[in-house]
Amino acid sequence: MKAIVVTDEAAGTAGMTLVERPEPEPAGNDVVVRVHASGFTPGELTWPGTWTDRLGRDRTPSIPGHELAGVVSALGYGTRGLSVGQRVFGLTDWTRDGTLAEYTAVEARNLAPLPGDVDFTVGASLPISGLTAWQGLFVHGRFQVGQSILVHGAAGGVGSMVTQLARQAGAYVIGTGRAADRQPALDFGAREFVDLDNDSLDDAGGVDLVFDVIGGDIGKRSARLIRPGGMLVTIAGPPEARPADGLAVDFVVEADRAQLSEIVERVRDGRLRTNIGRVAPLDDAVAAFTPTERIKGKTIIRVHP
Ligand SMILES: NC(=O)c1ccc[n+]([C@@H]2O[C@H](COP(=O)([O-])OP(=O)(O)OC[C@H]3O[C@@H](n4cnc5c(N)ncnc54)[C@H](OP(=O)(O)O)[C@@H]3O)[C@@H](O)[C@H]2O)c1
């Protein structure tokens, strides 16, 4: 089968190559999925799981990309809940070969059924941004109706999902980002917008929850914007500053079938909008991930039509 592989961490996305690899066999609790569409997060090339397995052994050349939408083509002997021919989508294990390939093996529990009226391209764009937003808000952030939330990167992949989910759940949302992100963030449901290059972040102070996707200095400055009893939720690594009288939590997104099903229902009924910037075939994936100009929105690779 055709697959993208990486062998050199220092080379980043420029080190991606399209090669022939053996098709995966269905074993244990895995299903094999014929990948129709695949999502990739550039950050994953810096994560240890891309380069080593759970025992710390080198697993290169490894296939990146951990979001998929496709059709189950084979079942492992211990698989329950899915059948051959079923449309599925989900988030695959970070420490195993991923989804920038014609086929991938994935534990059945990491997948959810993809309704027939949701396109594979849309399905592959949802797992990381949708699950991260859901888990950050409702699981780690313990969101409550009526809270005020500052969402960094509110026009980006995760931030746009957080903004929509929070607004629909009854939050007052303040989005942040670059000047050009103002209107997109307001369109996703933010009531106010802070342009991080030109406005004062401190003016947005006194919120119940900050959802940080940026980290660094912006993460540090965000801790002091949180009301007593509030929370800083970050996906940009361990927080460098914590709220004086509140909690800070950082987490890594996990696969969850029930949450995926909730998210896709919201896409079907129009409550959630995805943020896809470009769709490219697998043969053009390397070029798509090393663009010469900034692409707004997520790049999805259409592996099979
Ligand atoms: N821990 C986890 O489980 C987890 C899960 C998902 C993602 N992540 C990580 O979270 C980060 C965000 O992911 P994403 O998919 O949402 O990325 P994204 O689509 O690029 O969104 C990030 C947004 O923040 C904006 N932004 C970044 N730095 C900024 C700055 N200094 N000032 C103003 N705006 C800034 C970006 O604008 P520009 O595009 O103009 O820079 C973009 O609109 C990535 O680092 C990703 O690896 C972690």
Mind telling me which CATH architecture of the largest domain this is?
Alpha-Beta Complex
Q: Number of DSSP strands? A: 15
Q: What's the gyration radius in Å?
A: 19 Å
The CATH homologous superfamily of the largest domain is termed: Medium-chain alcohol dehydrogenases, catalytic domain
Overall mean pLDDT stands at 95
Per the CATH scheme, the topology name of the largest domain is Quinone Oxidoreductase, Chain A, domain 1
The topology string of helices and strands comes to EEEEEEEHHEHEHEEHEEHEHE
**Strand fraction band?**
25-35%
The hetero molecules present are:
NADP nicotinamide-adenine-dinucleotide phosphate
Shape: globular
Describe this protein's structure.
- This protein has two domains: 2-126 and 274-302, Quinone Oxidoreductase, Chain A, domain 1; 129-250, Rossmann fold, CATH 3.40.50.720.
- The radius of gyration is 19 Å and the shape is globular.
- Helix 2 crosses helix 3 (157-168).
- It has seven helices and 15 strands.
- The strands form three sheets. Strands 3, 4, 5, 6, 7, 14 and 15 form a seven-stranded mixed β-sheet that branches.
- The chain has helices spanning 120-125, 127-140, 157-168, 182-188, 216-223, 257-268, 285-289, and strands at residues 2-5, 17-20, 30-39, 67-75, 87-91, 103-107, 111-113, 148-151, 172-177, 192-195, 207-212, 226-234, 247-250, 276-281, 298-302.
- Helix content is 21%, strand content 28%.
- The longest helix has 14 residues, at 127-140.
- The two termini are 15 Å apart.
- The structure holds NADP nicotinamide-adenine-dinucleotide phosphate.
- Keywords: Oxidoreductase.
- One of its GO terms (molecular function) is oxidoreductase activity.
- This is NADP-dependent oxidoreductase.
- Residues 12-301 form the Enoyl reductase (ER) domain.
